[in-house]
Amino acid sequence: MESRLKYQPPRAHQRFKAGPRALVLVDQGPEALPYHIMDISEGGLAFRYLGQKLKRSEVKEISLYHDYELIVDALPVQAVSDFRLQDNLVPVRRASITFKELKAEQKSKLERFIRAFTEAPLPFS
Asked: What would you report as the CA-atom Rg of the chain, rounded to the nearest whole angstrom?
């Protein structure tokens, strides 16, 4: 009998629950809005947003903010997943992205962002 469970290798990086004003801006032109980060690690992040599904091909670069302050700019990323969280009148979605090759300065700023603007570590899963 074939198992319905998919094997998932352990995560390479510890995830952390994002603080209340940790935001990500997906570069989609002048009308782009920041989204709330749900969790983040040195390998990627997940964020929630309202509305229509983002086009994966357009998610190439992000910037990280705390409140309105830019903390890390122009991080290269690749979309991993995007799915609907709740069945409401306005769809709430969760998107996950992975960081591509980061420069030393970007990696350092990302590590500082994680230390300063996250709360508790999340369990490995």
From this structure: 15
